[in-house]
Model the fold of this input.
Amino acid sequence: MMRRAESSRPHGFTLVEMLAVVVLLSLIASVAAVSLARSDRGGAMQSARWGLMNLDAQARIAARTEGCGVIIRSVQNGSRLVADVQSAAADRWSSSVVLPTGVRIAFFDGQVGRGEAAAALLIDRTGRSADRTIGISIESGPSEQWLLCGLTGQFSRLDSGGGI
Done:
């Protein structure tokens, strides 16, 4: 019967090896966290943009069916959008969109930063409005500029230079 030779060297990992593994795992976790945060901000911006486009489409339809103007306002410091029919009727149409946390929307008469901030978007009884530049921003993150064509209700993204 053969006996195994016993080694005087202990089994296990050294402190340096353990520290190397911890450092590598923390680097991988930090890269993953940054990537997830970016995608979360992009999703919040997209959700806000879709909410605005949907509310605008509903408001234009309501203006035509109700036969009176509709106003879309940014309330609660730009964190919520509200659309109301401008009518004295008790059963008037109303709708609202709560924006994702940290996202703000503002309406402008001209380009964002160059035009005056408009309090609201007015849609007449035919479903038309003035052209507006819309700024969508997120806290400590990117911002977008969109042009709303008042005649058609179509949104076009503006590039950083202000062109279409």
Remarks:
- The chain has one domain: 15-158.
- The chain has a mean pLDDT of 79.
- The longest strand covers residues 132-138.
- Residues 15-158 form a domain with the minor pseudopilin epsh fold fold (CATH 3.55.40.10).
